[in-house]
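Worked example

This section walks through a single chain of length 108. The input is the sequence exactly as stored; nothing has been trimmed or padded.
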Amino acid sequence: MTELPAEKKLSVLFRLEPGCLGPEGAELIEGFCNFANSNINELPYASYQFVPRFDKNLPEWEYKINSRNLNNDRVSSYLAIFGQVKNQFEESLEEQVTEYIEIYLDRT
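Given that input, the structure is written out below as tokens.
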């Protein structure tokens, strides 16, 4: 598959809870997000950014195309073009994050 131009890619912002890194998560989360951002393999149609979720009022997931926020229906429609289902897409990314956490905490 050909790489899409940045303005047509789905931009995925994934806010990670500090607690996902254990009791010291608050001290580790920013470093972990930098680690994950530098190691994630982006898809030809999606780019990712991991940030700490310090504000519980902000959603865990945020999707945009060309700086425009997308609602869940539009995200699902976009992903369907590439044969993806939104829930499975998110679960797959969560699994990658879990693997990165293990690497980051040197548990593997």
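What to look for: Residues 86-104 form the longest helix (19 residues).
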